[in-house]
């Protein structure tokens, strides 16, 4: 079976997890005619399995940034179907972004570094991609006495029932990808 959804550089072989996700996407494309048109252009650049908690894992599927909008159109349906197929794992789609290091005095670049390639912006975009289709309504950074930082992210409370079970997955995946501690919450309703 040909790998139709895997996009790799020349000579790089796909991993076992990438082949598994590719086969699942091909099956989904073959068996659901309403998704076939939207799934055809979608490519994946890599797949990572992240340990969430004891025995539970998450599959993080990386897609190219230009295809992210096409993925968002079908992300909810595809995620639901893939989570049925991989019953013990949760599925997240994140864009494959590049971080360019800060130019030093010695090796000044000919062009300035784009803001979209800075570490802070890439980490913010990963956060946005991870919680899609819900929106982030607030962020707070908590600095403890020992100097450790924890980012509190407040998600839109209208999606509380559909995302409640994924909050620990979001935290574990963000910690694995960026090395930063994050806590996801839904803000308490305020009545005035």
List keywords for this structure.
globular, three-stranded mixed beta sheet, 23% strand, 192 residues, alpha/beta
**Class of secondary structure makeup:** alpha/beta
The percent range for helix content is 25-40%
- Along the chain, the helix and strand elements come as HHEEHEHEEHHE
Main beta-sheet strand count, sense and barrel state: 3 strands, mixed
What's the end-to-end separation, in Å?
60 Å
Rg value: 18 Å
Proportion of beta-strand residues: 15-25%
Number of strands: 6
Mean pLDDT: 85
Strand order of the largest sheet: 1-2-3
C-alpha geometry: globular
> pLDDT below 50 for ≥5 consecutive residues: which ranges?
none
| Tally of individual helices | 6
Provide a descriptive summary of the structure in words.
This protein is α/β, with parallel strands linked by helices and 192 residues long. Helices cover 36% and strands 23% of the residues. The chain contains six helices and six strands; from the N terminus they run ααββαβαββααβ. The protein has helices at residues 16-31, 33-39, 68-85, 119-131, 160-163, 167-178, and strands at residues 46-53, 56-64, 89-96, 136-143, 149-155, 181-185. The protein has a three-stranded mixed beta sheet with strand order 1-2-3. Strands 4-5-6 form a three-stranded mixed beta sheet. β2 (56-64), α3 and β3 (89-96) form a beta-alpha-beta unit. α1 crosses α3. The model has no long low-confidence stretch (mean pLDDT 85).
